Amino acid sequence: AQKITQTQPGMFVQEKEAVTLDCTYDTSDQSYGLFWYKQPSSGEMIFLIYQGSYDEQNATEGRYSLNFQKARKSANLVISASQLGDSAMYFCAMRAAGNTGKLIFGQGTTLQVKP
Amino acid sequence: DTGVSQDPRHKITKRGQNVTFRCDPISEHNRLYWYRQTLGQGPEFLTYFQNEAQLEKSRLLSDRFSAERPKGSFSTLEIQRTEQGDSAMYLCASSQTGGSTGELFFGEGSRLTVL
Asked: Which end of chain A is more exposed for a tag (fewer CB within 10 A), N or C?
């Protein structure tokens, strides 16, 4: 069965510093996609970054980068130059097997950025 | 494009009452998903539509839950005879088949409190 594990319930980071949020996954599929979403207190899930299993390069989107280590089945999110507005809950997700396009989410990590 | 919208944003009801949530997806998206999220947890998949066809239902979707997407556009999620355990955020998401990454676009959610 496919599974996403986020082992850090909460993280603190100083403003302007970088932070890494951990994510490990389990799947027997050869082709899969990994996602990170941000959920501020307003509740909306905001898509941040995507990594395909066959992508040779680690994905980057502005201050977000994904440290993809396929052999270790990890897809950690790195946020550089943290800002106060980065304080939110962050979810790692995997596209489920089959053709539904649905995502399977981890339990999330709450990030607090300190001024 | 106004994004995915959900209504109502908040609903407080007494145990045993019926509630209905509405989701309007992004207009050109043919896929629509409902998720449930309890406090401090990641979203859990409930059901999925492709156009008007409901193609997958989670075992979390008990007989008291029903979802429809009658014309392949907006969707409703009805909960009958609500229980306190139904208290959660109900998230709707949409996507388009064949999208570049397959990301889901989420609404801001409908928060249900059952007293």
From this structure: C
Among residues B103, B19, B31, the alpha carbon closest in space to that of B69 is found at B31
Q: Return d(Cα B36, Cα B41) in angstroms, integer.
A: 10
Q: State which amino acid sits at residue A49.
A: I
Residue-wise pLDDT tens digits, A62-110: 999 999 999 999 999 999 999 999 999 999 999 988 888 899 999 999 9
Q: Determine, for residues A100 and B48 on separate chains, whether the beta-carbon distance falls below 8 Å.
A: yes
Question: Are the CB atoms for B89 and B21 separated by under 8 Å?
Answer: no
* Contact (Cβ atoms closer than 8 angstroms) between residue A16 and residue A114: no
**Half-sphere exposure of B115 toward its Cβ, with a 13 Å CA cutoff?**
4
Residue B50 and residue B31: Cα distance in Å, rounded?
5
Chain A hits for B6, CB-CB cut-off 8 Å, are: none
* pLDDT value of position B1: 56
Q: Which H, E and C letters describe chain A, residue by residue?
A: CCEEECCCCEEEEECCCCEEECCEEECCCCCCEEEEEEECCCCCCEEEEEEECCCCCCCEECCEEEEEECCCCEEEEEECCCCHHHCEEEEEEEECCCCCCCEEECCCEEEEEEC
